[in-house]
Protein backbone atom coordinates (compact mmCIF):
# COMPACT_ATOMS: atom_id res chain seq x y z
CA UNK A 1 0.00 0.00 0.00
CA UNK A 2 1.55 3.31 -1.08
CA UNK A 3 1.70 6.42 1.06
CA UNK A 4 -0.98 8.01 -1.13
CA UNK A 5 -3.32 5.09 -0.53
CA UNK A 6 -2.72 5.37 3.20
CA UNK A 7 -3.64 9.04 2.97
CA UNK A 8 -6.83 8.15 1.10
CA UNK A 9 -7.85 5.56 3.70
CA UNK A 10 -7.15 8.00 6.54
CA UNK A 11 -9.30 10.68 4.91
CA UNK A 12 -12.13 8.17 4.45
CA UNK A 13 -11.93 7.29 8.16
CA UNK A 14 -12.01 10.99 9.10
CA UNK A 15 -15.07 11.66 6.96
CA UNK A 16 -16.81 8.61 8.40
CA UNK A 17 -16.01 9.78 11.93
CA UNK A 18 -17.50 13.25 11.30
CA UNK A 19 -20.55 11.72 9.57
CA UNK A 20 -19.82 13.28 6.18
CA UNK A 21 -19.48 9.83 4.62
CA UNK A 22 -21.64 6.83 5.56
CA UNK A 23 -19.89 3.65 6.67
CA UNK A 24 -19.39 1.27 3.76
CA UNK A 25 -19.86 3.97 1.14
CA UNK A 26 -18.98 3.13 -2.45
CA UNK A 27 -15.66 4.08 -4.02
CA UNK A 28 -17.03 6.85 -6.22
CA UNK A 29 -18.97 8.29 -3.30
CA UNK A 30 -15.80 8.35 -1.19
CA UNK A 31 -13.81 9.95 -4.02
CA UNK A 32 -16.45 12.67 -4.33
CA UNK A 33 -16.61 13.30 -0.56
CA UNK A 34 -12.82 13.64 -0.28
CA UNK A 35 -12.68 16.01 -3.25
CA UNK A 36 -15.51 18.14 -1.86
CA UNK A 37 -14.23 18.42 1.69
CA UNK A 38 -10.49 18.73 1.08
CA UNK A 39 -10.45 20.79 -2.10
CA UNK A 40 -8.84 18.35 -4.52
CA UNK A 41 -10.12 16.96 -7.80
CA UNK A 42 -11.96 13.65 -7.90
CA UNK A 43 -9.30 12.32 -10.26
CA UNK A 44 -6.64 13.10 -7.64
CA UNK A 45 -8.65 11.29 -4.96
CA UNK A 46 -9.10 8.37 -7.34
CA UNK A 47 -5.36 8.22 -8.02
CA UNK A 48 -4.63 8.21 -4.28
CA UNK A 49 -7.08 5.35 -3.85
CA UNK A 50 -5.35 3.40 -6.60
CA UNK A 51 -1.94 4.11 -5.10
CA UNK A 52 -0.68 5.85 -8.22
CA UNK A 53 1.09 8.77 -6.55
CA UNK A 54 4.39 8.12 -4.77
CA UNK A 55 4.76 11.82 -3.83
CA UNK A 56 2.28 14.12 -2.10
CA UNK A 57 2.44 17.83 -2.89
CA UNK A 58 3.40 19.88 0.22
CA UNK A 59 0.77 22.56 -0.50
CA UNK A 60 -1.95 19.92 -0.85
CA UNK A 61 -0.98 18.23 2.40
CA UNK A 62 -0.86 21.59 4.22
CA UNK A 63 -4.38 22.41 3.01
CA UNK A 64 -5.71 18.98 4.05
CA UNK A 65 -4.17 19.28 7.52
CA UNK A 66 -5.70 22.77 7.89
CA UNK A 67 -9.17 21.37 7.15
CA UNK A 68 -8.62 18.42 9.49
CA UNK A 69 -7.63 20.83 12.26
CA UNK A 70 -11.19 22.18 12.11
CA UNK A 71 -13.23 19.01 11.71
CA UNK A 72 -11.13 16.28 13.40
CA UNK A 73 -8.19 17.73 15.36
CA UNK A 74 -7.48 14.38 17.02
CA UNK A 75 -6.47 12.97 13.62
CA UNK A 76 -4.07 15.76 12.67
CA UNK A 77 -1.06 13.86 14.04
CA UNK A 78 -1.83 10.94 11.69
CA UNK A 79 -1.84 13.25 8.68
CA UNK A 80 1.30 15.05 9.84
CA UNK A 81 3.09 11.71 10.07
CA UNK A 82 2.05 10.83 6.51
CA UNK A 83 3.13 14.30 5.35
CA UNK A 84 6.51 13.87 7.04
CA UNK A 85 7.16 10.55 5.29
CA UNK A 86 6.24 12.07 1.93
CA UNK A 87 9.29 14.34 2.08
CA UNK A 88 11.79 11.58 1.32
CA UNK A 89 14.47 9.28 2.70
CA UNK A 90 15.89 11.69 5.29
CA UNK A 91 12.54 12.12 7.03
CA UNK A 92 11.87 8.37 6.82
CA UNK A 93 15.16 7.78 8.60
CA UNK A 94 14.36 10.28 11.36
CA UNK A 95 10.89 8.77 11.81
CA UNK A 96 12.33 5.25 12.02
CA UNK A 97 14.94 6.31 14.59
CA UNK A 98 12.32 7.99 16.77
CA UNK A 99 9.91 5.06 16.57
CA UNK A 100 12.55 2.45 17.38
CA UNK A 101 13.44 4.43 20.50
CA UNK A 102 9.78 4.32 21.58
CA UNK A 103 9.59 0.58 20.89
CA UNK A 104 12.83 0.07 22.85
CA UNK A 105 11.30 1.77 25.87
CA UNK A 106 8.15 -0.32 25.55
CA UNK A 107 9.81 -3.69 25.01
CA UNK A 108 12.86 -3.72 27.27
CA UNK A 109 11.13 -4.31 30.59
CA UNK A 110 9.95 -7.19 32.77
CA UNK A 111 12.44 -9.88 31.59
CA UNK A 112 11.87 -8.97 27.95
CA UNK A 113 14.67 -8.98 25.40
CA UNK A 114 14.80 -8.28 21.69
CA UNK A 115 14.53 -11.90 20.59
CA UNK A 116 11.63 -12.94 18.37
CA UNK A 117 9.53 -14.65 21.04
CA UNK A 118 9.81 -12.08 23.82
CA UNK A 119 10.13 -8.46 22.71
CA UNK A 120 7.86 -8.46 19.65
CA UNK A 121 5.28 -10.57 21.50
CA UNK A 122 5.23 -8.11 24.37
CA UNK A 123 4.57 -5.38 21.83
CA UNK A 124 1.65 -7.38 20.45
CA UNK A 125 0.02 -8.70 23.64
CA UNK A 126 0.87 -6.36 26.54
CA UNK A 127 -2.50 -5.34 27.97
CA UNK A 128 -0.88 -2.54 29.98
CA UNK A 129 -0.10 -0.68 26.79
CA UNK A 130 -2.93 1.66 25.89
CA UNK A 131 -4.75 0.15 22.88
CA UNK A 132 -4.79 3.48 21.04
CA UNK A 133 -1.04 3.93 21.60
CA UNK A 134 -0.37 0.38 20.38
CA UNK A 135 -2.44 1.05 17.27
CA UNK A 136 -0.57 4.31 16.64
CA UNK A 137 2.84 2.69 17.05
CA UNK A 138 1.97 -0.19 14.75
CA UNK A 139 0.34 2.07 12.16
CA UNK A 140 3.38 4.34 12.10
CA UNK A 141 5.70 1.35 11.95
CA UNK A 142 3.92 -0.15 8.96
CA UNK A 143 3.77 3.24 7.23
CA UNK A 144 7.52 3.74 7.57
CA UNK A 145 8.37 0.27 6.28
CA UNK A 146 5.89 0.45 3.42
CA UNK A 147 7.29 3.83 2.44
CA UNK A 148 10.87 2.58 2.54
CA UNK A 149 9.97 -0.50 0.48
CA UNK A 150 7.98 1.64 -1.95
CA UNK A 151 10.89 4.05 -2.47
CA UNK A 152 13.48 1.28 -2.70
CA UNK A 153 15.67 3.01 -0.14
CA UNK A 154 18.92 1.21 0.57
CA UNK A 155 19.16 -0.36 4.02
CA UNK A 156 22.33 1.65 4.76
CA UNK A 157 20.27 4.85 4.62
CA UNK A 158 17.77 3.63 7.24
CA UNK A 159 19.95 1.93 9.91
CA UNK A 160 17.00 1.44 12.28
CA UNK A 161 14.88 -0.40 9.69
CA UNK A 162 15.92 -3.97 10.65
CA UNK A 163 15.11 -3.30 14.32
CA UNK A 164 11.83 -1.63 13.40
CA UNK A 165 10.77 -4.59 11.28
CA UNK A 166 11.61 -7.19 13.90
CA UNK A 167 10.13 -5.23 16.81
CA UNK A 168 6.89 -4.95 14.85
CA UNK A 169 6.66 -8.52 13.52
CA UNK A 170 3.96 -9.70 15.92
CA UNK A 171 2.36 -6.28 16.24
CA UNK A 172 1.62 -6.26 12.52
CA UNK A 173 0.24 -9.79 12.86
CA UNK A 174 -2.00 -8.58 15.69
CA UNK A 175 -3.42 -5.88 13.46
CA UNK A 176 -4.01 -8.16 10.49
CA UNK A 177 -1.26 -6.60 8.38
CA UNK A 178 -0.09 -9.95 7.02
CA UNK A 179 1.26 -8.58 3.74
CA UNK A 180 3.52 -5.98 5.30
CA UNK A 181 4.87 -8.61 7.74
CA UNK A 182 5.76 -10.95 4.89
CA UNK A 183 7.02 -8.27 2.49
CA UNK A 184 9.24 -6.62 5.07
CA UNK A 185 10.79 -9.79 6.51
CA UNK A 186 11.61 -11.28 3.11
CA UNK A 187 13.12 -8.03 1.84
CA UNK A 188 16.80 -7.15 1.99
CA UNK A 189 15.77 -4.25 4.21
CA UNK A 190 15.18 -6.57 7.18
CA UNK A 191 18.85 -7.55 7.25
CA UNK A 192 17.92 -11.09 8.24
CA UNK A 193 20.26 -12.88 5.85
CA UNK A 194 23.21 -10.48 5.98
CA UNK A 195 24.82 -11.89 9.12
CA UNK A 196 23.07 -9.48 11.48
CA UNK A 197 21.27 -12.41 13.13
CA UNK A 198 22.41 -15.96 13.77
CA UNK A 199 21.05 -18.59 11.33
CA UNK A 200 18.82 -19.90 14.16
CA UNK A 201 16.90 -16.68 14.67
CA UNK A 202 17.00 -15.82 10.97
CA UNK A 203 15.37 -19.19 10.24
CA UNK A 204 12.59 -18.37 12.69
CA UNK A 205 11.92 -15.00 11.06
CA UNK A 206 11.68 -16.65 7.64
CA UNK A 207 9.82 -19.79 8.76
CA UNK A 208 7.41 -18.15 11.19
CA UNK A 209 7.45 -14.52 10.17
CA UNK A 210 6.91 -15.17 6.45
CA UNK A 211 5.26 -18.60 6.26
CA UNK A 212 2.39 -17.93 8.67
CA UNK A 213 1.11 -14.71 7.04
CA UNK A 214 1.57 -16.31 3.63
CA UNK A 215 -0.68 -19.21 4.68
CA UNK A 216 -3.32 -16.90 6.16
CA UNK A 217 -3.19 -14.73 3.06
CA UNK A 218 -4.25 -17.83 1.12
CA UNK A 219 -1.03 -19.13 -0.41
CA UNK A 220 -0.06 -22.42 1.30
CA UNK A 221 2.38 -23.19 -1.54
CA UNK A 222 4.39 -20.05 -0.82
CA UNK A 223 4.11 -20.69 2.91
CA UNK A 224 5.60 -24.15 2.40
CA UNK A 225 8.44 -22.63 0.42
CA UNK A 226 9.29 -20.28 3.27
CA UNK A 227 9.19 -23.13 5.80
CA UNK A 228 11.56 -25.24 3.70
CA UNK A 229 13.86 -22.27 3.16
CA UNK A 230 13.97 -21.79 6.94
CA UNK A 231 14.81 -25.45 7.56
CA UNK A 232 17.62 -25.26 4.99
CA UNK A 233 18.97 -22.17 6.74
CA UNK A 234 18.76 -23.93 10.11
CA UNK A 235 20.93 -26.76 8.82
CA UNK A 236 23.83 -24.29 8.57
CA UNK A 237 23.58 -23.33 12.26
CA UNK A 238 26.35 -24.21 14.72
CA UNK A 239 26.45 -24.50 18.51
CA UNK A 240 27.87 -20.96 18.64
CA UNK A 241 24.94 -19.70 16.55
CA UNK A 242 22.58 -21.39 18.98
CA UNK A 243 24.12 -19.61 21.97
CA UNK A 244 23.91 -16.25 20.21
CA UNK A 245 20.23 -16.75 19.34
CA UNK A 246 19.05 -17.79 22.83
CA UNK A 247 16.88 -20.37 21.03
CA UNK A 248 18.04 -23.95 20.67
CA UNK A 249 18.38 -25.47 17.21
CA UNK A 250 15.97 -28.19 18.31
CA UNK A 251 13.35 -25.65 19.41
CA UNK A 252 13.72 -23.71 16.18
CA UNK A 253 13.26 -26.89 14.15
CA UNK A 254 10.23 -27.79 16.28
CA UNK A 255 8.63 -24.42 15.54
CA UNK A 256 9.26 -24.49 11.80
CA UNK A 257 8.16 -28.10 11.39
CA UNK A 258 5.03 -27.38 13.46
CA UNK A 259 4.21 -24.62 10.99
CA UNK A 260 4.81 -27.08 8.12
CA UNK A 261 2.25 -29.43 9.69
CA UNK A 262 -0.34 -26.66 10.10
CA UNK A 263 0.14 -25.69 6.45
CA UNK A 264 -0.39 -29.33 5.41
CA UNK A 265 -3.50 -29.72 7.57
CA UNK A 266 -5.03 -26.66 5.91
CA UNK A 267 -4.10 -27.44 2.33
CA UNK A 268 -4.07 -31.21 1.95
CA UNK A 269 -3.48 -33.56 4.86
CA UNK A 270 -3.68 -36.71 2.72
CA UNK A 271 -0.99 -35.47 0.34
CA UNK A 272 1.41 -34.79 3.22
CA UNK A 273 0.86 -37.82 5.47
CA UNK A 274 4.50 -38.92 5.21
CA UNK A 275 5.82 -35.55 6.39
CA UNK A 276 3.23 -35.40 9.18
CA UNK A 277 4.07 -38.91 10.38
CA UNK A 278 7.74 -37.95 10.48
CA UNK A 279 6.88 -34.86 12.55
CA UNK A 280 4.98 -36.98 15.06
CA UNK A 281 7.91 -39.41 15.23
CA UNK A 282 10.50 -36.66 15.71
CA UNK A 283 8.59 -34.13 17.82
CA UNK A 284 5.42 -35.80 19.10
CA UNK A 285 6.82 -36.70 22.53
CA UNK A 286 9.57 -34.12 23.01
CA UNK A 287 8.48 -30.82 24.59
CA UNK A 288 10.15 -27.61 23.46
CA UNK A 289 12.12 -25.61 26.01
CA UNK A 290 10.45 -22.30 25.11
CA UNK A 291 6.76 -22.39 26.04
CA UNK A 292 5.75 -20.28 23.02
CA UNK A 293 7.22 -22.91 20.71
CA UNK A 294 5.78 -25.72 22.84
CA UNK A 295 2.35 -24.15 22.39
CA UNK A 296 2.71 -24.31 18.63
CA UNK A 297 3.98 -27.89 18.77
CA UNK A 298 0.82 -28.81 20.69
CA UNK A 299 -1.33 -26.87 18.24
CA UNK A 300 0.22 -28.78 15.34
CA UNK A 301 -0.58 -32.08 17.06
CA UNK A 302 -4.14 -30.86 17.62
CA UNK A 303 -4.52 -29.88 13.96
CA UNK A 304 -3.38 -33.36 12.95
CA UNK A 305 -6.21 -34.90 14.97
CA UNK A 306 -8.73 -32.43 13.51
CA UNK A 307 -7.60 -33.32 9.98
CA UNK A 308 -7.81 -37.06 10.69
CA UNK A 309 -11.29 -36.61 12.26
CA UNK A 310 -10.94 -39.72 14.41
CA UNK A 311 -9.87 -38.80 17.95
CA UNK A 312 -11.44 -35.45 18.88
CA UNK A 313 -10.77 -35.83 22.65
CA UNK A 314 -7.07 -36.16 21.80
CA UNK A 315 -7.29 -33.00 19.68
CA UNK A 316 -8.95 -31.18 22.59
CA UNK A 317 -6.15 -32.31 24.91
CA UNK A 318 -3.46 -30.94 22.60
CA UNK A 319 -5.22 -27.59 22.17
CA UNK A 320 -5.70 -27.30 25.93
CA UNK A 321 -1.98 -27.96 26.46
CA UNK A 322 -1.18 -25.40 23.77
CA UNK A 323 -3.16 -22.75 25.60
CA UNK A 324 -1.37 -23.51 28.88
CA UNK A 325 2.06 -23.26 27.28
CA UNK A 326 1.32 -20.03 25.41
CA UNK A 327 -0.14 -18.41 28.52
CA UNK A 328 2.84 -19.51 30.62
CA UNK A 329 5.30 -17.96 28.18
CA UNK A 330 3.50 -14.62 28.12
CA UNK A 331 2.87 -14.47 31.88
CA UNK A 332 6.58 -14.07 32.60
CA UNK A 333 6.41 -10.73 30.79
CA UNK A 334 3.49 -9.67 33.00
CA UNK A 335 0.93 -10.43 30.27
CA UNK A 336 -2.02 -12.27 31.87
CA UNK A 337 -3.18 -14.33 28.89
CA UNK A 338 -2.83 -14.73 25.16
CA UNK A 339 -5.62 -14.54 22.62
CA UNK A 340 -4.59 -17.41 20.40
CA UNK A 341 -7.07 -19.74 18.74
CA UNK A 342 -6.18 -22.70 21.00
CA UNK A 343 -9.07 -22.18 23.41
CA UNK A 344 -11.73 -22.04 20.70
CA UNK A 345 -10.22 -24.99 18.82
CA UNK A 346 -10.21 -26.99 22.06
CA UNK A 347 -13.90 -26.12 22.44
CA UNK A 348 -14.61 -27.17 18.85
CA UNK A 349 -12.90 -30.54 19.38
CA UNK A 350 -14.94 -31.09 22.55
CA UNK A 351 -18.09 -30.10 20.66
CA UNK A 352 -17.38 -32.79 18.09
CA UNK A 353 -17.04 -35.44 20.81
CA UNK A 354 -19.46 -34.28 23.53
CA UNK A 355 -21.99 -32.09 21.77
CA UNK A 356 -23.12 -28.60 22.90
CA UNK A 357 -22.77 -29.07 26.67
CA UNK A 358 -22.49 -26.10 29.04
CA UNK A 359 -18.72 -26.56 29.56
CA UNK A 360 -18.25 -26.66 25.78
CA UNK A 361 -20.41 -23.56 25.35
CA UNK A 362 -18.38 -21.72 27.99
CA UNK A 363 -15.07 -22.79 26.44
CA UNK A 364 -15.97 -21.59 22.95
CA UNK A 365 -17.63 -18.37 24.08
CA UNK A 366 -14.72 -17.32 26.27
CA UNK A 367 -12.32 -18.08 23.43
CA UNK A 368 -14.26 -15.70 21.19
CA UNK A 369 -14.29 -12.95 23.82
CA UNK A 370 -10.53 -13.17 24.19
CA UNK A 371 -9.90 -12.81 20.49
CA UNK A 372 -12.32 -9.89 20.20
CA UNK A 373 -10.67 -8.11 23.13
CA UNK A 374 -7.18 -8.31 21.62
CA UNK A 375 -8.27 -8.14 18.02
CA UNK A 376 -6.07 -10.69 16.25
CA UNK A 377 -7.94 -10.99 12.97
CA UNK A 378 -7.15 -14.59 11.99
CA UNK A 379 -7.72 -15.87 15.53
CA UNK A 380 -11.04 -14.04 15.77
CA UNK A 381 -12.12 -15.61 12.49
CA UNK A 382 -11.31 -19.08 13.84
CA UNK A 383 -13.12 -18.31 17.09
CA UNK A 384 -16.23 -17.00 15.32
CA UNK A 385 -16.35 -20.08 13.08
CA UNK A 386 -16.18 -22.32 16.18
CA UNK A 387 -18.98 -20.25 17.74
CA UNK A 388 -21.06 -20.68 14.58
CA UNK A 389 -20.52 -24.46 14.73
CA UNK A 390 -21.74 -24.40 18.34
CA UNK A 391 -24.97 -22.63 17.37
CA UNK A 392 -25.44 -24.96 14.39
CA UNK A 393 -25.21 -28.00 16.66
CA UNK A 394 -27.71 -26.39 19.06
CA UNK A 395 -30.20 -25.76 16.26
CA UNK A 396 -29.95 -21.97 16.63
CA UNK A 397 -29.79 -21.04 12.97
CA UNK A 398 -30.30 -17.31 13.60
CA UNK A 399 -27.23 -16.95 15.84
CA UNK A 400 -25.20 -19.27 13.61
CA UNK A 401 -26.00 -17.02 10.64
CA UNK A 402 -25.03 -13.95 12.69
CA UNK A 403 -21.60 -15.41 13.50
CA UNK A 404 -21.07 -16.44 9.88
CA UNK A 405 -21.94 -12.89 8.80
CA UNK A 406 -19.47 -11.36 11.26
CA UNK A 407 -16.83 -13.84 10.13
CA UNK A 408 -17.34 -12.96 6.48
CA UNK A 409 -17.02 -9.24 7.26
CA UNK A 410 -13.52 -9.88 8.64
CA UNK A 411 -12.62 -12.26 5.81
CA UNK A 412 -13.66 -9.77 3.13
CA UNK A 413 -12.07 -6.77 4.85
CA UNK A 414 -8.68 -8.49 5.04
CA UNK A 415 -8.96 -10.53 1.81
CA UNK A 416 -8.60 -13.89 3.55
CA UNK A 417 -11.16 -15.87 1.56
CA UNK A 418 -8.89 -18.68 0.36
CA UNK A 419 -7.51 -19.35 3.83
CA UNK A 420 -11.00 -19.19 5.31
CA UNK A 421 -12.24 -21.74 2.78
CA UNK A 422 -9.51 -24.15 3.90
CA UNK A 423 -10.37 -23.53 7.55
CA UNK A 424 -14.10 -23.97 6.93
CA UNK A 425 -13.45 -27.35 5.29
CA UNK A 426 -11.37 -28.48 8.26
CA UNK A 427 -13.86 -27.36 10.92
CA UNK A 428 -16.85 -29.22 9.56
CA UNK A 429 -20.29 -29.19 11.24
CA UNK A 430 -20.83 -31.69 14.04
CA UNK A 431 -22.83 -34.14 11.92
CA UNK A 432 -20.62 -34.01 8.83
How would you describe this protein?
The protein has 432 residues and is an all-alpha fold. It is built from 22 helices and no strands. The mean pLDDT is 87. Helices cover 72% and strands 0% of the residues. It has a domain of 84 residues. The protein is globular, with a radius of gyration of 22 Å. The longest helix is centred in the N-terminal third of the chain and has 21 residues.
Quick gist of this model?
The chain has 432 residues and is mainly α.
Give a topology summary.
Elements: H1 3-17, H2 27-38, H3 42-49, H4 58-71, H5 76-85, H6 89-107, H7 119-125, H8 131-151, H9 161-174, H10 178-185, H11 199-216, H12 220-234, H13 239-245, H14 249-267, H15 273-283, H16 291-308, H17 312-331, H18 342-354, H19 358-374, H20 377-394, H21 397-413, H22 417-426
Helix pairs in contact: 1-3, 1-5, 2-3, 4-5, 5-8, 6-8, 6-9, 7-9, 8-9, 9-10, 10-11, 11-12, 11-14, 12-14, 14-15, 14-16, 16-17, 17-18, 18-19, 18-20, 19-20, 20-21
